[in-house]
Design brief:
The chain has 109 residues and is mainly beta. The protein has one domain: Sandwich (Jelly Rolls), CATH 2.60.120.340. 0% of the residues lie in helices and 63% in strands. The strands form 2 sheets. Strands 1-8-3-6 form a 4-stranded antiparallel β-sheet, with no helix packed on it. It has a 4-stranded antiparallel β-sheet with strand order 2-7-4-5, with no helix packed on it. Strand 4 and strand 5 form a beta hairpin.
Length: 109
């Protein structure tokens, strides 16, 4: 069996508009293992990360971060099914979000 490797799944800019930053591919299960958030503007930025499942508008609020410092790292374990979307939104300015994890062939039950 091949080893499961962690890789960068996305590196996207979050704005005040709710933005899709990663979509789990068809036929795979994605596991988000860490999120790294960085802001490159003055002042604190509150960042909200959510997940969306299918077209039912089901959203799960994960965390709201106050990014007074330049970079914040979060170890996590978020399982996404095919078509699930990881989204980000700020209350002001912009922030960059990097998600690292693994994409596994097949779909978890």
């Amino acid at each position: 069996m091949a080893a499961v490797r962690t890789k960068t799944l996305c590196a996207e800019t979050a704005t005040t508009t709710l933005t899709s930053i990663y979509t789990c591919p068809n036929g795979e299960t994605a596991i988000i293992k860490s999120l790294t958030m960085g802001k490159f503007a003055t002042g604190a930025v509150n960042l909200t990360i959510t997940t969306l499942r299918a077209a039912t508008a089901y959203g799960l609020h994960i965390e709201a971060f106050s990014l007074a410092a330049a970079v914040r790292h979060l170890n996590c374990w978020i399982v996404l099914m095919p078509g699930d979307v990881l989204r980000a939104q700020t209350d002001a300015n912009t922030a960059t979000v990097w998600a690292s994890g693994a994409e596994l062939e097949g779909v978890a039950d």
